[in-house]
Amino acid sequence: MATLAQPAGPFALGTFSAPGGGPFPGLLSEGRVLDLSRALDRTPSGLRAVLERWEETLPVLRDLADDDSLDWRPLDGLHVHAPLEPRQIFQSGANYRQHVIDLEVAHRSADDPRTVEEARAEIAAIMDRRAAEDLPYVFIGLPSTIAGPYDDVVLPSWARKPDWELELAAVIAKPAYRVSVEEALEYVAGYTIANDLTDRATVFRRDMPAIGTDWLRCKNAPGFTPLGPWIVPAESVADLGDLRVTLKLNGETMQDESTKDMLFGVARLVSYISQTSRLLPGDLVLTGSPAGNGIHWGRLLRDGDVMEGSITGLGVQRTRCVEETR
């Protein structure tokens, strides 16, 4: 088990289990965990049930975190699962300016007449126009990709170029449909860490290029979205627009960027998604990944690699890559 970094704020939420026991929704505070299935007046089946009544439950959680008389358990010794099982996962692509520029340069065809500098300048202008015209790029992921923050990541035998993409994930608190940018953050309960793994070799359909991207194939293998370790309430995240997103591969820093580089912040993404789809409590909105993916470094994931992902105030996840047994 990785060293369990404490989150920002007085408490966070997670899903835990003791040896030999089943998972339970828990309140984490000062290195100890309270079983919410016992502490709340009602018995929640999981964290999603807590989120479904977020506005009335949040003040109760604040009081519970300050109550030393309750039946707290030490975090040490508990297994940490993915904090929740979402019904829907909305993923934002091409949302970090520098990342998109790097990918464009990396995917240039051999006969592209542009210099590297010309290619970077051209895609930078496109990114700035997208931001000005309010055109996020969002697609759908499968809940079956969710894995725990310390679980092994199985690399499928067919995935020839598996890559990492560490991301800030917003957790929805209440149904949101056609909400404005100004009110969008009122629908966010908190934030967690997601590593949105991608097989670069299957991103584009080679049999029919006009179809474009194949998100099912490249992103939706079981366990391809390690999540957590915790959900930190939005009120405890000091500066959403300047969080440090850092991924280390075998101890070497590969991604290290501020959320300031995002073209579309959380409010704009939530509002944009809600114009088409109804967001539900516990849904995830992944906000895109910064520069420094494996395709940029020319170094993709392989058996035995260890990824350590952190975001300011949200803790640390640590996952080991394991080749699929053929």
UniProtKB/TrEMBL annotation:
InterPro entries referenced in this protein's UniProt entry, alphabetically: FAH (IPR051121), Fumarylacetoacetase-like_C (IPR011234), Fumarylacetoacetase_C_sf (IPR036663)
GO biological process, any: small molecule metabolic process
Fumarylacetoacetase-like C-terminal domain ranges (all copies): 89-320
Family to which this protein belongs: Belongs to the FAH family.
PANTHER family noted in UniProt: FUMARYLACETOACETATE HYDROLASE DOMAIN-CONTAINING PROTEIN 2A, FUMARYLACETOACETATE HYDROLASE DOMAIN-CONTAINING PROTEIN 2A-RELATED
Statement: the UniProt record of this protein carries the keyword Metal-binding: yes
Organism the protein comes from: Streptomyces phyllanthi
Pfam families attached to this UniProt entry: FAA_hydrolase
Regions crossing the membrane: none
Domain of life: Bacteria
Record's protein name: Fumarylacetoacetate hydrolase family protein
Record keyword Nucleotide-binding present: no
GO molecular function: hydrolase activity; metal ion binding
Keywords recorded for this protein, A-Z: Hydrolase, Metal-binding
